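Protein in question quoted for reference:
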Amino acid sequence: MKNRFITMCLIGSVSMAFIACGNQKGDTVEETAPVAVEETVDEGALIENLNEEVESEDNQPEEVDYEVFTSKGSEAVEEYAKEIKDAALDEDWDTIGDMIAYPIGSKEDGTLCENKEDFIEYATNVGFDQSYYDSLEEWSLEDLWANYQGAMLDNGNIWFADVYVDDTNCELKIISFWGLHNS
């Protein structure tokens, strides 16, 4: 496909040169033949490289690269995820409240929490569906996933990311928690 494209571009260029020079009498046009470009790919090497990227030497999946969203190391990110899971399952709303980046929730849905006190009141009075607890109970740290937006627990039910707490300092903070999303 690439060779065909290069050949068509070359033919088009030569044709344009003929058209531009064709109206001048006495000029000769030198015809050029298209150049074939051939690219060889060692498919075996590509597959081997792909397999090396997917598995480490001990056949374990490679670690997730958390550097796409934070400068904190893997240990800090995974410990934070474990703290979230433990506090949520224990219904320790005070701890979760300290971990959230406010505001979170939606004014339209009546779930807006502007601060820790609002969140604790919401969690205590309104609460969360049992399915969130059940799902998080089954979730394991090996399932922690990350992209440039942050890290995801429990198939996306909880997200956290680096959030600026002042002009120069970032902290890991929850940006989405069981249906409450960062506003």
Notes: The chain has two domains: 2-39, 66-181.
